[in-house]
Write a structure and sequence with these properties.
Elements (H helix, E strand, L loop, with lengths): L1 H11 L4 H19 L5 H8 L3 H26 L4 H25 L2 H28 L6 H26 L5 H4 L1 H21 L6 H17 L1 H44 L4 H16 L1 H4 L8 H21 L3 H28 L6 H29 L2 H23 L3
Helix pairs in contact: 1-7, 2-7, 2-9, 4-6, 4-10, 4-11, 4-16, 5-6, 5-9, 7-12, 11-12, 11-15, 11-16, 11-17, 12-15, 14-15, 14-17, 15-16, 16-17
Length: 415
């Protein structure tokens, strides 16, 4: 950790001013999302469409839209129109917040579905463009600092936004909090107008504007991105597939927490403020990921994977057995730490298994499998809640994680 802190201090002066300003913009964008009700997403959905299965379906729709647009935007980001992607992503989020608020105000499932679709589109466009820009402007002298700044901006916004939301929800109706998404998107748009030409001098060209939408539709409908992914399986075989399977497993667990722990807390008569605090506590370990990430380098990969996935199973067992708020917070911290440490480990392992030429396609394919994990995880858990119970579903899900863990780890990673 001492070496990582020393590296951060040494590299900080190499961060371009443009990156610093974009990090602050990303912070404001994510802050708007979490002030705007992302913390209470499943509770909000259930208040409009009162069924655990419908919450699962909405979660699956969100993941499907993100998956489709992430692939398309990933291909487009390499073709140089980042400024347009960011600008339209912010406009879509402005509309998204209005639809979310209207869905709750009018109690309309149709408006809610539209809001979820806009949410998936905007998220895919913005995060893909931002991440590509950050990686594009990092090098051997500032890579740790640039990427560390990006993830610190995101995770800080998660924690701060959830804590502020825990107070706002005491005095504001839940539907009105979604207007913060539109408000912060508008602020971010105004700021982006001042930076846009620095990112892309062609940003004001009508030709480029039309190109963006034509190209996006082409990427979505042509299936070119999926053909590239199939090529990877033919090239790298079952070992590559097993690594992607572990990515799916982790994202399924993370998404089930996001969708159903708030509903579990409501079932235990905890308030919306306490739910927001649970989310904030879970995100705290992510703030330390930049400093403690190198600890895993000193332990063999297989042992790290064994420990973290075993811990993930125990977290879900705990959710099935415990209803004390303090213990739920402790489980949240452990869960957050596991996800924080496992995600870069699994991502790095997937990218390392592909050649440098296929690294971009591998990253896009990994995004698809991450979203597939969310889709399958949310739908499966919704079925379990429907036929068992909320706490029983967490127990069954823990068993599934354990079984899948052994299939992937003992079969494909055993030396």
């Amino acid at each position: 950790m001492h070496q990582r802190i020393h590296t951060l201090r040494a590299d900080r002066r190499h961060i371009p001013d443009m990156i610093k300003r974009m990090s602050l913009m990303m912070f404001l964008f994510v802050l708007g999302r979490w002030l705007g009700g992302d913390v209470f997403f499943s509770v909000y959905v259930e208040s409009i469409a009162p069924s655990a299965m419908l919450v699962s379906a909405m979660g699956a729709v969100l993941a499907i839209v993100k998956m489709s647009f992430s692939l398309a935007m990933g291909n487009m980001s390499t073709k140089g129109d980042l400024a347009k992607m960011v600008r339209w992503g912010k406009w879509i989020y402005l509309i998204c917040g209005l639809f979310f608020a209207a869905a709750g105000f009018f109690h309309s499932p149709a408006l809610l579905i539209a809001a979820v679709i806009f949410n998936g589109m905007g998220s895919a466009m913005l995060f893909t463009a931002y991440q590509y820009y950050f990686r594009q402007h990092s090098n051997e002298h500032n890579r740790y600092a640039v990427l560390g700044l990006m993830y610190t901006s995101i995770n800080s916004a998660y924690v701060i936004g959830a804590l502020i939301a825990s107070l706002l929800v005491l005095v504001m109706p839940l539907w009105s909090m979604y207007l913060f998404i539109s408000l912060f998107a508008l602020i971010s748009l105004w700021w982006w107008k001042r930076l846009e030409e620095d990112v892309n001098p062609l940003a004001k060209s009508m030709t480029r504007r039309l190109w963006l939408w034509r190209q996006m539709m082409y990427e979505l409908l042509s299936g070119e991105s999926y053909h590239h992914s199939v090529h990877l399986f033919r090239t790298y075989g079952l070992s590559f597939a097993s690594r992607l399977g572990l990515v799916s497993l982790l994202n399924a667990a993370d998404y089930v927490w996001f969708l159903f722990v708030p509903l579990l807390a409501v079932a235990h008569d905890y308030s919306l403020s306490e739910i927001a605090i649970l989310f904030a506590v879970m995100r705290v370990p992510a703030l330390l990921s930049y400093f403690i990430g190198d600890m895993e380098d000193k332990i063999p990969y297989h042992y790290v994977l064994l420990g973290w996935l075993g811990g993930l199973t125990l977290c879900f067992v705990g959710l099935a057995l415990v209803d004390h708020f303090g213990i739920l917070m402790a489980i949240g911290v452990v869960m957050g730490l596991i996800i924080t440490m496992l995600r870069p480990l699994l991502v790095g392992n997937v990218l390392a298994s592909a050649s440098e030429h296929d690294a971009g396609i591998a990253a896009g394919t990994m995004t698809v499998f991450a979203r597939l994990g969310e889709i399958v995880g949310s739908l499966l858990f919704g079925l379990l809640v429907t036929f068992v119970s909320m706490q029983g579903a967490f127990g069954v899900f823990a068993s599934i994680i354990w079984v899948v863990f052994f299939v992937f780890v003992l079969t494909f990673y055993k030396k």
